[in-house]
Amino acid sequence: MPRPAAPLVRSKPALLGGKPLVTPAMRVTWPPRGEPERKAILEVLDSGQWWRGGTRQQMAQSVTGRFERAFAKWQGAKHALCVSNGTAALELALKAGGVEAGDEVIVPALSFVATATAVPLIGARAVFADADPETYQTDPASVEAAITPRTKAIVVVHYGGYCADMDRFTKLAKKHKLLLIEDCAHAQGSQWRGRGAGSWGDAGCFSFQQSKALTAGEGGAVISNSDVLAEKLYSYHHLGRLEDQGFYDFHRVAWNLRLTEWQGAILNEQLKRVKKLTLIKQRNGAWLSKRLEQLGGLLPLKRDPRITRRGYYFYLMRYDARAFGGLTKARFFQALQAEGLPVSQAYGRAIQRNPVFAQMKDERGRLIYARTSTPNADRICAETQLTLGHTALLSRPLLEAFVASVERIRAHASEIRDQGKDAARAAG
After folding, report:
1. Is residue 421 among the annotated active site residues?
2. Looking at residues 131-148, what average pLDDT do you find?
3. CB 3.0–4.6 Å: which of 25, 346, 393, 405 could bond 284 by disulfide?
4. Catalytic residue check, 95
C-alpha cells in the first residue's frame, strides 16, 4: 500500500473534529477460528475422554499431550507440561524449583501483576528490579544489585515478546547459583540466538489466555530441559503423585493444575495458526519500525540482533514529547485513540504501585514496598510507553492508518495541545 497522500496528513485529526482514519474493516477478529477448531472440539466430545488422564502414559497419549510435545519442540525444550493458566505456571515453576516461604524472588517492576503475585502466593517475597529504558526489559544490573543471601530465584519477563538479555541473565543466575524462571506469557514463538524463549532458564512459563498470540481462552504451560525439574513439575501439578507410584499414593502437598482435553484440542489447531501468524507479525513489525524511524518522535524499541524471532504480544514504542511540540503522552494517546487505533499504555504503572503491593505489610505492620525505587519503570509508564496489540500487526491497512495518524497529529500538535489546556481550564 502506498504512503498516505499529503492532503490526508494536512487534514484535521479526529480529536479536532476530523474523520477517524481507522475503519472497522481494518481490524482483525481475535482469536482466529474456524472448522479445524470445531472439528477438534467435536472429536473430544465424541471420545468421552474429557480429562487428560492420570498416568504419564495416558497424558502422553492425550490430545493435550500431543500439543505439549509439539509446543516443546517449537520453543526448543525437552519437556512441556500444560497447566490451568499462566499464573499457575509461575507458581508451579517456583515451587518445583525449590522456592520456599521466606525466600526472596527478584521480579521485574515492568510486567503484568501476576509475574509478582505468584511469589507471595507460595509464601516467598517479591523484590522488584528496574527496567532498561531502551528495551523496557528487566535490567540485569538492577537485578544483581537486588541479590541478598535470601534470594532464591530470578523471574525474567520477555516483555511484549521482546526477549530479555538471556546472555547476561543465564550468567548471572549461574554466578549466584539462583533458579532462573522465564515468564514467557508474551513470548510464544520468540527466539534468542535461534533458541526459543523459555528454554534458556531452568523453566519457561507461558499463558494461553484469550488475548495471547497462542490461546485456548485460558491455560498455560511450563517448559524445561531438566529431567529432574520436569518430574517435580508433573508431581506438583498432579496432586503430589509420582509417575512410577500408585494413582492413590500422594507424596507432596500439591495442586490440581491439569488442563482439559477441550483446551488441548484448541491449542493443537491454534499452534498451526500461530506459526504462520508469527511470521506475518514479524514482517509487518519490521515494516512499522522502519516507518517510525523515518518519522521520528515515536520510536520502536532498540534493535537487538540476538532476537532471531519475535513473537509479539505488544508492539512497544518510545514516545518523545519534544518531537511533538511538547504534547504530553497522555494527550498524544487521546489523539491516537480518537483515530480508532487499538493503542494502549500497557499496564499503566510499575507492579509495586498497585494497591496489592503498595499496601502490603510485613509481620510488624510496616509497608514492605514503601521505599522500593524503580525510576526507569516509573518514567517509562508515565512518559514514554505506548503500545499496539499484536493483532494490529496482522493488518497492513491498520498500520498504514497508524503511521498517517502519527503524521497528522504531529502536523496539528500545537492545536491539540492548546485544546487540551483549554479543556482543563474549563473543567476548573
Report:
1. no
2. 98
3. 393
4. no
Look up 186 and say whether it is catalytic.
yes
Using DSSP's 3-state secondary structure scheme, residue 46 falls into helix
Q: Pick the catalytic residue: 67, 112, 162, 206?
A: 112
Please indicate whether residue 275 is annotated as part of the active site: no
As a residue count, the chain comes to 428
CATH for 35-270? 3.40.640.10
Domain-wise residue ranges, the chain: 6-29+273-423, 35-270
Percent of all residues in the chain with a pLDDT value above 70, rounded to a whole number? 96
352: annotated active-site residue: no
Q: Give yes or no: 303 in active site.
A: no
DSSP bridge pairs for 385: 318
Q: Which CATH architecture has domain 6-29+273-423?
A: Alpha-Beta Complex (3.90)
Half-sphere exposure of 262 (CA within 13 A, CB side): 6
Q: Report the side by side order of strands in the sheet with 151-157.
A: 79-83, 220-224, 203-207, 179-183, 151-157, 104-108, 125-129
pLDDT at 424: 60
Active-site residue identified among 52, 79, 158, 212: 212
CA dihedral 92, 97, 103, 107 (to 10 degrees): -70
Catalytic residue selected from 79, 241, 273, 408: 241
Choosing from 183, 188, 206, 378, which is the catalytic residue? 183
What confidence tens digit (pLDDT) does each residue in 243-274 have? 888 889 999 999 999 999 999 999 999 999 99
* DSSP 8-state assignment for residue 210: T
| pTM to 2 decimal places | 0.94
Identify the active-site residue in 177, 248, 371, 425: 248
Interval 43-91: pLDDT, tens: 999 999 999 887 778 888 999 999 999 999 999 999 999 999 999 999 9
The one catalytic residue among 75, 137, 188, 209: 209
